[in-house]
Amino acid sequence: VSVRRTSFFGFSSTHRCGGAILNSEWIATAGHCVDDLLLSQIRIRVGEYDFSSVREPYPYIERGVKKKVVHPSYNFFTYENDLALVKLEEPVEFRPHIAPICLPPDDDNLIGRNATITGWGRLSEGGVLPSMLQEVQIPIVSNTKCKNMFLAAGRNEYLPNIFMCAGFEDGGRDSCQGDSGGPMQIQGEDGRWFLAGIISWGIGCGEPNLPGVSTRISKFKDWILENIT
């Protein structure tokens, strides 16, 4: 999902963040992606691949938003509970390239699993924005290891269990600005993909010992289901 901000007068929109489809009416994204926007400023684009191409085999769909629910405990300073749900003005129809993602299992020990992250965020810190959706695999690390990695880079970070870290000690592959709100997804044993995390924050992009940090979705399943069902 491309979570977009409307330009002046609302005739067009620009990419701001990623998101994930939960059902035909609801999108998950990061709290910081929509917290400061009015409903009229948010546009949701699904089924997009290349922003610069109008001749894709499957067209994208863009919708306005009629409701946003930012997590009530979202903290603008620490990025704790950095999660929001956005309700589309009208439902989207699922197609080969537009499908919902499952919620994660409860037993959330995903340490060592390879997660796939996708987005249209910058290709390097302060670098260019791609027009095509990017994808990379990164391993999930325990919060203890994550804390030690940050310490090795000279950063003492507070990492409660609602955060989930992923990355390499030597860096190189990571999310970056514009990827926030997008999915960190894992393929379950049944072959279906589930939403392990929503990309939240990081220090730099792909730096050694500075893993990317996501909102751990298994900790928010009840809250999500209460709001979208």
TrEMBL record:
Q: Does the keyword Disulfide bond apply?
A: yes
Q: Which UniProt keywords apply?
A: Disulfide bond, Hemolymph clotting
Residues of the Peptidase S1 domain: 1-229
Q: CDD domains attached here?
A: Tryp_SPc
Q: Which InterPro entries match?
A: Peptidase_S1_PA, Peptidase_S1_PA_chymotrypsin, Peptidase_S1A, Trypsin_dom, TRYPSIN_SER
Protein's name according to its UniProt entry: Serine proteinase stubble-like
The upper taxonomy is: Eukaryota, Metazoa, Ecdysozoa, Arthropoda, Chelicerata
Name of the encoding gene: LOC106473322
